[in-house]
Amino acid sequence: MEIDFYPDDNRFLHFEKYNLDYSIGSVHQLYNKSDGLYYSIDDNSKEFNRVLNVMFNGSIENFVTRYYSTLRNMIIQGGFDILGHIDLIKKFNSQFNYFTEKEDWYINQVEETLELLKCRSIIVEVNTGAISRGVQNVPYPSQWILDRCYTMGIKICLNSDAHRVDTIDFYFKEALDMIRKAGYSYLTTPFEKVYIGD
């Protein structure tokens, strides 16, 4: 089950009583202290722009930094097995109209998050959902992040994040090619490893 993270409400503890096979921790919303509300970062590009301007005065660096720091807070709090769509913040950035992933500040945010994931032995999800919904042309995470996960010994799994039955394995062949390109021979879940070839 995918569980949303809210810093002031440890939902992971609430779900422990259901004895789930595994849980995916994700961040879809950011908290705005000035009005006490949560704002979605992945509904649509119009809402994304509104969050950028209302919460961060147009600073994409501050927006992205808050996203990754919220992810890290969730990782520190723990209580889940898999990190969902680590770089969800790129969802509406397929044309790099907000930032490029080669900027030092962006790389540093990702690296800091990966270090924490490694220390906590949390599995990283490779997620094809945004491709099936037509808003991205590559999975989460980007190839370079996947490469770093492999180098750092971080385990991964593959998920379609399907909202419909007909997309349950959408883009899996291509995603598996990316995964193998990074160096992986296995996918991992909390209860098994699956060989995918070299």
Number of helices: 7
How many angstroms separate the termini?
29 Å
Q: Order of strands across the biggest sheet? A: 1-2-5-6-7
How many structural units, i.e. domains?
Answer: 1
Measured by DSSP, the beta-strand proportion falls in: 15-25%
Quaternary structure annotation: single chain
Describe this structure as you would to a colleague.
The protein has a single domain (2-195), classed as TIM Barrel (Alpha-Beta Barrel), CATH 3.20.20.140. Helices cover 39% and strands 17% of the residues. The strands form three sheets. A five-stranded parallel sheet has the order 1-2-5-6-7. A two-stranded antiparallel sheet has the order 3-4. Strands 8-9 form a two-stranded antiparallel ribbon. Helix 3 (60-77) packs parallel to helix 4 (104-120), helix 4 runs parallel beside helix 6 and helix 6 (143-152) crosses helix 7 (172-182). It is built from seven helices and nine strands.
Précis, in short:
This protein has 198 residues and is of the alpha/beta class. Helices cover 39% and strands 17% of the residues.
